[in-house]
Write a structure and sequence with these properties.
mainly alpha, 2 helices, elongated, single chain
Length: 67
Amino acid sequence: AGKGGKSKRSKSKGSRKKTKKPVSEVDILSPAAMLNAYYISHNAAACLEFRGFNWPDSPKKKGKKGK
């Protein structure tokens, strides 16, 4: 193995730019969204938290510990 000099790297096919899709507005009160909220929420406060409306000064949720 040669010391110094240029290191060989695998050549990639150029950088590909990812095009961002335009974000469509989602209706959180649509029947499908309400059905989803019904199954994942335990109460009204949990439903609002899932939709992004958190209570002010509420404690942050801690992640589940792995076993």
